[in-house]
From TrEMBL:
Entry annotation: catalytic residues: 328 (proton acceptor), 329 (proton acceptor)
SUPFAM superfamilies assigned to the protein according to its UniProt record, in alphabetical order: ALDH-like
GO cellular component, as recorded: cytosol
Record-given protein name: Histidinol dehydrogenase
EC number: 1.1.1.23
Cited Gene3D superfamilies: 1.20.5.1300, Nitrogenase molybdenum iron protein domain (3.40.50.1980)
Entry similarity comment: Belongs to the histidinol dehydrogenase family.
Key words of the record: Amino-acid biosynthesis, Histidine biosynthesis, Metal-binding, NAD, Oxidoreductase, Zinc
Organism per entry: Acetivibrio clariflavus (strain DSM 19732 / NBRC 101661 / EBR45)
Binding sites annotated in the UniProt record for Zn(2+): 260, 263, 362, 421
Note accompanying the cofactor annotation: Binds 1 zinc ion per subunit.
Positions of substrate binding: 238, 260, 263, 329, 362, 416, 421
Amino acid sequence: MIQFIDLRANKDSDIFNKLASRNQIEYGDIQDRVSDIVNNVKKNGDNAVFEYTALFDKVELTSDNLKVSPDEIEKAYGKVGKELIEVIKKARNNIAKFHEKQLEKSWFTTGEDGVILGQLYNPIEVVGIYTPGGTAAYPSSVLMNAVPAKVAGVKRIVMVTPPGGTDGINPAILVAANEAGVDEIYKIGGAQAIAALAFGTESIPKVDKIVGPGNIYVALAKRMVYGYCDIDMIAGPSEIMVVADETANPKYAAADMLSQAEHDALASAILVTTSEKITEEVKRELEIQLNKLPRKEIAEKSLKDFGAIILVDDIDSAVDVVNRIAPEHLELCVSEPFSLISYIKNAGAIFLGNYSSEPLGDYYAGPNHVLPTSGTARFFSPLNVSEFMKKSSIISYSKKALQQVKDDVIKFAEAEGLKAHANAIRVRFE
């Protein structure tokens, strides 16, 4: 069911290349189709959006019913249980409190002779959030994308989500969006929604940045519009790595691995352990728990194709595997998890101890669940407040301060053959 790899004798394995190649965001035949959609929306605005919504979602939209109304939001509250609404509010508060600690302030420093330098922070003006619909309707993702933007001070948060056919938009998504402070919601999805946000249409505002997960059409569209606006990241399939020693609970480890394997067939769940006993017990628990899952077929294929139980010599070797794979989610189910933090260089989110289960990060604890995947934790960070902020450099020199350095600046400019640059300094002292 799941691949077993013994790295004690052989320090390499094909699992590393296999994981690196599993990312579904590949250029292919779909690219041409997405390009056509993006260009059509860019050229024809609302009409193109309505055309694609009728074609793909089987919903007829007009400028009158494109935007979710206050009445629709109010009705959504009536369709969502009061307990879930309270949980959404608690999660929103936890996410806000965590992200408020990430806020940075503008700063200035003064030097000799009237030199003032600094950095000015301003929030992005308009942010677009893409929220999947249908079976992949996740109100938690609405909170994770909208709350940091709100904390950053973004003035206008625009959300797009598929219209949902005859059943309409998932009401929990509308409740989460309202609780998170989303200003406008439009009933469109797919590549056409990304293009509408990037270029603007007669009804949909042009945004400065697009965030949020989506299928390959959405991901490719985000790639294509990057430069017209900013984007967060191109997310790949979900993944989890559990590092376990002999003190780990095999039932917990297996449950957490399956929590990611059930996402989709390309998800990856890996156990790295120093204990032969743990390898056998976790394998047995995976088989037991897998049979109880509604999404058994998906999780089973995920474990077979991209799952692994890796046996290593010691914890140092386990850490080497972590840093090489750079997992999206990392659980340290070892006797002293805090002692390993300084050695973990590549991971999206790190969960410490047997009771810090990964779903805490998905829904409730507060840190963002929009995380780098497919090894990109080597250079990407989780979605955070700074993603919704811009920085401007501040430079102020007095005449005396400029006089002290003018010859250096002129020399540098002339060395690069830029006479006008040099002259811009020289004329001030002629």
